[in-house]
Specification:
heterodimer, A: about 300 residues, mainly alpha, MetI-like fold, 12 helices, globular, B: about 325 residues, 16 helices, about 75% helix
Amino acid sequence: MSTVSIREGTPTAGRLRPRKPVTERVPVGRPSGLPNTALGILFLAIMLFPVYWMVNASLQPNGTTIQATWFPIHPDFSGYATALTQQGQNLGTSLIVAVGSVVVSLAIAAPAAYALSHFKVRGTNIVLFGILISQMIPGIVVANALYTAYNDLGLLNTIGGLILADSSHGIPFAILIIRALMGSMQSSIIEAARVDGAGHVRVFWSIVLPVSRNALITAGLFTFLFAWSDFLFALTLTTTDAVRPVTLGLYQYIGSYVTDWSSVMATAVLASLPAVVLLLVAQKFVAAGTASGAVK
Amino acid sequence: MGELAAAEIAAAQRTTTAPASRGPGRGEASAEQARPRGGRRRRESVYQWAFLVPAVAYLILFFGYPVVKNLVVSFQDYGTATFYTGEAPWVGFANYAKVLGSSIFTTAALNTALFTAGSIAGQFVIGLALAVFFRKRFPLSGLLRSLLLLPWLLPLIASGAVWKWILDKDSGALNQFLEALHLVPNGVPWLTSTSLALVAVVGVNVWIGIPFNVTILYGGLQDIPDELYEAAALDGATGWRAFRHVTWPLLRPVVNVVLVLGVVYTLKVLDIILALTGGGPANSSQTIATESYALSFQEFRFGEGSALGNILVLISLVFALIYLRASRRGVED
């Protein structure tokens, strides 16, 4: 490989020059500073334009909006009024399904993550391999099979059915992330409790879970978002209006010829709110979960 | 993008925020637990397995069962009648023959290849460029980088809705913009022309995938020590040459993972295509995944839909094997 020369050159260069203190780690090359910030803001503005456009469009006056203005100078909230009237119930359904999926996912993932990170039972590699492989399975394959199974079991058009199916988005992820964050938890506190005579369930409930709070919150937030954003199962596992998540409501809006874009965009904004909240909140928890190192 | 991507992102953030995991290794508790012999040891491992049982049961029911069921159904004449009579006669490979022989399959297979290749190329090149850019630490770089995640976190159907309006032929923002610059004479039918629909869908999917690529590649770039760049600079390699001889070779393991995961996730994309074009016009943006959906849930020919789904699984599996090989090589490095 052409890199060999440089890789071999490194130690020599390191010996010739005194090592820089870590604090002085300035990137090599052009001086960085405010021009880069300006460039970064420009890139971000381009990337986030569709998000801006969604908000802008949602604030345009209702009705036959042929030409929207580039700024919502006179914000009009009638789009939101229509959205809440027509999609309010669907938003509620999405909320129930997403919360339910968080409960199911954490209840299943947390014990598994604990076992995978702290027990050395035979077969853990198989479980991890299964989780990896599960990611390769296209959602449409799962939906194909679940539709017929749900039809037989009477789970079509039920909240419970959707919760269980939507958890397939969250459970593999939750196991992996909780396991990764639990890995930094010190085994000594678990051992100490075991020596004191606490059973596995008690150790898990009174020590492992409280210590892993941040991991659980992080996994819970993402699981919520996955279930909230689910479209495939909403589309395939419901056949009536009875149980209809907001993603499906939005799909039906845009499936036909759209005349009233402001209420469609208002619905899209409402459907996007959890993602924004997650972006603001989760980062803190992901960082906190790792920085605290669980126990001191 | 899939859920594992989220794990990758969270993990990538973890490696960039926390220096290293500390505390004693995982092996210690289990070494202690492994000491008791015979019955106690067996009972202990039964208790430990109990923690895994719900997860294993779930994985079997919601991933294992569908794969097996799909395989079975793909050899059956499973259609509307089946739901009334409960009968699904065996037909051997007839479903596969029908699906592979239809004219739509060639179109869908080609579209899947173009959609995947186009999406991955776009996401990766732009993602890598942005990751390299964000590696220069400048004021607000961390904040800007985390805000960049937003397109990836939005519900795909919400992104689909707004893009459908941006790409609208008559009043869409893109056409307004292009017309104002006199780049196009009049409304470009992005989503309603057979020659442009696939391009538009790829473009939107690139937009969705950029944050994932930036985050993972940025994490990989952070692991390359600055000293190497300093040494390369002494040897006269800066800018492009430093990228080519230092960044690229050291980033290769991460690049492999990003590309293969990207392919696996892109192959099964369904939401965004359904939202934007529904696979149309005239199948011009139909992929294997959307066609499988259409066969099963619009025409209720579950046998054929399953057969097509299995072909998709097979393609994914090939890339999964490449992924496993690539990640193992990454570990060995």
